[in-house]
Amino acid sequence: MDYDRIRTFINSYNRDDAGLLGEIHSEALSSCVPIIRDETREFLKLIITMHKPEHILELGTAVGYSAIIMAEAMRMYAGHAAVTTVELEHDTAETARKNIAGMGLSDFIRVIEGDAAKILESDDLSGENFDMVFIDAAKSQYQNYLDGVLKYVHKGSVIVCDNILMGGEVLDSHFHVEKRDRTIHDKMRKFLYNLKNDSRFVTSIVAIGDGMTVSYVV
Q1: Of 161, 160, 68, which is closest to residue 108 (Cα–Cα)?
Q2: Across-strand partners of 54?
Q3: Cα separations (Å) of 218 from 24, 150, 209?
Q4: Taking the model in full, what pTM does it have?
Q5: In the chain, which ranges are continuous DSSP H helix?
Q6: Which band of pLDDT confidence, cut at 50, 70 and 90, is reported for residue 130?
Q7: Under DSSP, is residue 178 helix (H, G, I), strand (E, B) or coil?
Q8: Which strands sit side by side in the sheet containing 109-113, from one edge to the other?
């Protein structure tokens, strides 16, 4: 089965981003900034519309594209939004703030600078409670991120992890992967095994975009 053709066919039905959001999307792609894929965007919007979270935590802001998508999806059903997003790089965080302000969402999206794993251990999120978490940061740290967010979620929260297929590389055996990439490959495989076998969650691995996991906290 030709999955590239399937993906192209599916995306042909998706509407392109308009106005400033379209410019943010195009600029990110032309600058090789990693942002969520079109089919991932549509799936996230569906999850948010169905689950109706009141507060979302995102790990991995990049230029703010996915945070904007999530905030706008929240506003569709609630009229307001609350997204907290964490970005490691200062310049990237500043670009995200500029894009978020340009979209008129500064009151709805909070950008925190710093290492996501350390932020989760610090007091920066003290007292916060999230109905949904979107993890899209360093792939080698997914297990640490998952462990770190547990104190901020509750029964019924949804945790979504993106890019778990790593461009298909995670499908290969350890010795078929370039030596420099084997550590992250092995960590991702271990993360997926742990997540699927963790009784605290009901988890589905879905082949959307570059692969996603969707976990419901039970």
Answers
A1: 68
A2: none
A3: 37, 12, 26
A4: 0.94
A5: 3-11, 19-30, 38-51, 65-78, 90-102, 116-121, 142-149, 182-196
A6: very high
A7: coil
A8: 109-113, 83-87, 56-59, 132-135, 158-162, 212-217, 201-206
Cβ neighbours for 78, distance < 8 A, ≥ 6 positions apart: 52, 54
The tokens describing 32, both together, are 């090789």
**Alpha carbon distances (Å) from 38 to 83, 142, 145, 209:** 20, 22, 24, 8
Amino acid at 147: D
Residues in the chain: 218
Question: Residue 56 pLDDT > 70, yes or no?
Answer: yes
179-195 burial, b for 16+ CB within 10 Å, e for fewer? eeeeebbebbbebbeeb
Which one-letter amino acid corresponds to residue 209?
A: G
Q: Is 145 exposed, middle or buried (0-12, 13-18, 19+ CB in 10 A)?
A: buried
Q: How many CB atoms lie within 10 A of CB 83?
A: 29
